Each structure stands twice: as C-alpha cells, then as structure tokens.
Amino acid sequence: MVQKLFALSKVETKRLLWIMGLIFAIFLVFQYFELPYSTALPSFFSAKNLPVLGKSYLQNGDSLSNDSAHTATESTLERATNNTRTSNFVWEGKGGPNTSLGLEEDDKDSEESSYISLEKKNRTSISGDVEHIVDNKFEPVEARGPDQNWNIKFDTSYGNSSVDRIVKESDIVTSDHVGSSIAGFASSPPPTIPSINSSHFASPIVVDTSIITPTELVEKDTTTTLDKNEKSERLNSDLKQTEDASSIARVAEIIRKPKVWQKKPPIVVYPISKMNNMLLQSQASYYSVIPQWSAAVDHELKYVASQIENAPIVKNDPNLYAPLFRNVSMFKRSYELMEDILKVYVYKEGEKPILHTPLLEGIYASEGWFMKQLEASQKFVTKNPQKAHLFYLPFSSRLLKLTLYVPDSHSRRNLVGYLKNYLEMVAAKYPFWNRTEGADHFFAACHDWAPAETKQLMAKCIRALCNADVNEGFVFGKDVSLPETYVRSAENPLKDVGGKPPSKRPILAFFAGRMHGYLRPILLHYWENKDPDMKIFDKLPNTNNKRKKRKGIIKNYAQYMKNSKYCICARGYEVNSPRVVEAIFYECVPVIISDNFVPPFFDVLNWESFAVFVLEKDIPNLKNILVSIPEKRYRKMQMMVKKVQKHFLWNAKPLKYDIFHMILHSVWFNRIHRISPIN
C-alpha cells in the first residue's frame, strides 16, 4: 500500500489525503453528536481524558442540550434522592455575582398571613413550585454573562457533615469514567472533605474552594450502550419509581429558572463565638473620629462613658433579668443616662414619601415604627441642634426602593443619587455633618438593599440595619443590628402575642417559607417530609379542611410556632429573617441558621442564653443538634425567651425597655465612644 502511494502523482496524493481528511472530519462530527449518548470512536479519547461538553453540568459532570437539560436534571436529582441517605449540597456557579445586594424577601415568609402589605405589591410573580420575584434583580445586565447558572450537586457520602464547596463550571474539565448515565459520563468520587468541628473556633472558618470533581450519582455501566429510546424509557421509569422527590423537584425548578442575582454561600464564616470576640475587640479599641471643632456634647459624653465603665453592681432588678445581658449593670447605667441626657435632632428637610413617611405594616415595619415614635418623642428630640448628641436621617429604605427603583433596570444608581443629593443639601444647610463627617448621624433601615446603598455615602454613620451581615461591611462598635419585625396590624402590633408552655409543645422544630436564597432548598431537601418531629415546609398545608381543623391536624403559621419547641430561622436572600423576632413573639426558641448574621442588640444581649446557632453546613445534623439539648436546658431557654420578649415588642406608645428604647439605646451606646473631644 505504501509503495502504491509513493507511485501516485503529487496531484493524486493530495486528492487522496484530502479524502482521508474529509472522512476523519465526518467521524469527528459523528463523535461530537453521538458521544453523549453512546461511545462512538472510543479510541480517540481515553476514559480519563474524556471531555465534558456543554455549559450546564449535572451532578456527575453530564452535559445536556438545552431542550433536554431540564427534564434530565430533575430526573437525575430525583434518582439521587433514592440512592443517597444524607446528601451534602455543593453549589456551583459561573460568573455569579458577589455583591451585598439581593432580591428582597417580600414575604420573608409568613405565607399564611392574610395581610397584603405594600411590599407585596409592585412585583411580578412567575408561576411554578418556587415563586421568583423579578422586579428587583440587582446586577446590571451588561455585568452578567450568559452562563451564570446555579446548579446543585450532592455528595453521596453517608452520615457526614462535610463542608459545602463552591466551584465554577469552568473548573470542571474532565470526567474519569464513561458510563450509561443520562449524558454518557460518570465521574470518580470527589476527594474527601474533612469535617470541621463547630464547637470551638479561634478564627473564621475558611471554606476551601479548590477545584473538585463532580460526585458520581448513577451506577457505572461501561458495557451497555443504550440508544436514545432506551434512555428515554429508563428516565421515565426512574421518574415513576421516585416516591419522595418533592424537595428535589423544587431544587430542580430553581435550576431551570436560574437567578443571576443568587448569592453564593459565604467563603469566610464567622461563628457566634468569633463574633463575640470581634465585639469585645471593638469595645476595647473604639474607633473615634476627631471632630473639626469642639462641642460641649462631646465632653458630656466623655463623662457618660466613665459613668458606664464604673457602673454600680445591679442585683435582682425587677425589670431586667440579668442572665439575658452581657453586663446588666453597665446596660442599666447606660440606659438611665440615655433617659436623662440623650438629645436627638431630627432633620426636618426632605419630601415625602421617602422621608418622614413611616410604613407601619409588613416585614420592613421596624424602620417605620422607629421613625414614627422617635419623631413624636418629647423626651429625646430637641429643636436645638447645638444640644444634640445624635442627628437622625429620617428616610425609609423601603420607600426609597418603591418610589425610585425602575423595574427590571437592574440599577440602584438613582436611589444612591437621591441619598447623595439629600446629604449634600443637609451638609450645605447645617454644619453638623461636616463637623464629624457624619459620625454622630444615624438612620434605621430595614430593606435588604440598605447596606449597599449606604456603605460609601454614610460609611461613618451609625447604621441600624436589618441586613446585619459581617461579610457585607457590618462594623462592630459602630453599626447596630436592627430587629426585623413582621407587623401585621398597625392598629394592634401585639395581636396574638404569646405561646403555649413547654409541656404543650409537641413539635420539635418548625419552618415554613418560600425558597428564597441558596439555603432553604438545602433545608427542605434534608428535612421536608423526612421526620415526623421536624415540621419543615415550603408552603403550609391547606387549612380549609374543617374536619382536620377540629382534630388539630392542620395549623396555621402562628399555631405552628406556638406549638413548636424550636423555630427554624433560616436565611433567605440575605442573612436577616423576620422569623427571629417572630419566634420570640410566639415564645419559641429561635434556631438561627444564617452564617455571619449579627443578631439584634448584639452589643448588650447574651443571645446564646435563649437561642440556638447552627452553622449552615450542619443542616444535615439539625435534628441531632436539637435532640442533644437536654430538656432542662430547653426549658430554661424557653423561659429566657419569655423574659427577653418585652425587648422586642412594638407598643402603641413606647414603654421602658421596649424595642424602640432598645434600638435607640444601641445607637446611643455606640455613639458614646465614637467621637474624641478636642481638649
């Protein structure tokens, strides 16, 4: 053959080579289209170097066409449920945003409430298992790539709580085995991820984000080749045989409708013990601002600081339960001095509705109630700014969004511009902002966007924020964690307060809420319909059945909280959730699952005395964590919840030590050491 080839003329040789090249190209095309379904031309690629095609990855590194990806993804996830005992979610994304701004949790999510608040309007809903709020996706379109899809992986190791990992689709390059999975690929198991003991932390937990291979979810079958019809039948059969796939189907729904604004789990995790240390460090080395000129109020607060540091020991105060506080003696002295001395100047400038317009219902009601009660206060408000220790900026972060945000614009520029113009007007009319660069100014903002909108313009202000996230710029010793309170009735904010005694709480743990954020699908995957003691729902069962109502089988949201020992407070799009205060409202021990969330009044309250903190990575062990708490310890915590309740209640008129005074005290407490007087 070689001799005949050399005997050919150059023209014939070129023609023969061209024909061979064409044949080779045809085989490559055949390989490209047939490889996901079979093993055409296996000799060209070894099993260890097989390329993973496409941009959408399943658990085993599979790639699917756009038309079949949704069905196959859901089927694979459902089949994985049956083969996995305790799965660990591993999220992967490509080009996902890393910003402090996310979609607001408009219901956050007491879905059974009949109240339709203002924040539930002006939004667009997409039908499906998961409601997607789309009127305020935050990232500019030009900043997003077409491949910013979130997918979910399961680690099929049994009975562990290994750390979830974050990987990009571009990081996954090869699969180790060829099998008969949906797309023709199956990978080797990922490297072992060591578990992290969450009981003691001397430093933040850094989640390893090194490249890992996808987890193998289907049986390897290198000998059988299935054609498309056989595979379709197998998928249908697997789907029919899946009995408990409701939570996985919901996760698949999230995949099918990717949210480009979806936040990733935090890379650095600060457990509650670490945040305690950060608070102590901030108090030991206060961040002080040197004013442009001296003022009498600065020297007055220097005296106040010395009084608090040398506070007399408090014993058996009838109004304060000492174990709830970090230092009840210092808190009481500070509170007394606040009542005697504090003066706040409220800027009168600014047009409604963004300024001077309190919203008193819904999940953002905290900022509205505080605005209403402070502006009406004769004790704390002064008309003479020269006597003011604090200056209040009376804007509503919720109304700022409702009034100025352009739906589907994906831009906050006009919102930030409005605040900038307002501050420039205040600074031009008054000298007080420029004296301290805003260090003695404060505001209360509950909307999720508030940290991002104010982090530059009001960097030195005391920011009272519901979205109190350590990873999003919350500063201990300066900023305040504002309680997020879901007020259903402005006329009666205390309606239905209270709960049942511990002996009449048959439910171990309860959660109900929409699938906001990355965490809740994980919670439901592990615990929805998995354990009779764990009442974990997306939407609550229908309560229209009168017979079941009479038997007490079905309860509404408030009744579930009143009948539960522990109430799960899982983060949504952001770290904050109204469930934290709701649990206290209904005398249920809060279980906070939200890494890096600074709980309200963290500067004075000992949260670990009446709440349970569970790291996000420990969701698979949630029940074990709760049942390991002795009954005696639980009853003491539940009693503490009842004791701390009054500090989280809005009263029609402010009462001593209620939520209004607690917010104001936290601002006052941080102000005391903020400005160094000029001698």
UniProtKB/TrEMBL annotation:
<dbReference type="GO" id="GO:0016757">
    <property type="term" value="F:glycosyltransferase activity"/>
</dbReference>
<keyword id="KW-0808">Transferase</keyword>
<keyword id="KW-1133">Transmembrane helix</keyword>
<keyword id="KW-0328">Glycosyltransferase</keyword>
<keyword id="KW-0333">Golgi apparatus</keyword>
<dbReference type="InterPro" id="IPR040911">
    <property type="entry name" value="Exostosin_GT47"/>
</dbReference>
<keyword id="KW-0472">Membrane</keyword>
<dbReference type="InterPro" id="IPR004263">
    <property type="entry name" value="Exostosin"/>
</dbReference>
<dbReference type="Pfam" id="PF03016">
    <property type="entry name" value="Exostosin_GT47"/>
</dbReference>
<feature type="transmembrane region" description="Helical">
    <location>
        <begin position="16"/>
        <end position="33"/>
    </location>
</feature>
<comment type="similarity">
    <text>Belongs to the glycosyltransferase 47 family.</text>
</comment>
<protein>
    <submittedName>
        <fullName>Probable glycosyltransferase At3g07620</fullName>
    </submittedName>
</protein>
<feature type="domain" description="Exostosin GT47">
    <location>
        <begin position="342"/>
        <end position="628"/>
    </location>
</feature>
<feature type="region of interest" description="Disordered">
    <location>
        <begin position="86"/>
        <end position="113"/>
    </location>
</feature>
<feature type="compositionally biased region" description="Acidic residues">
    <location>
        <begin position="103"/>
        <end position="112"/>
    </location>
</feature>
<keyword id="KW-0735">Signal-anchor</keyword>
<dbReference type="GO" id="GO:0000139">
    <property type="term" value="C:Golgi membrane"/>
</dbReference>
<keyword id="KW-0812">Transmembrane</keyword>
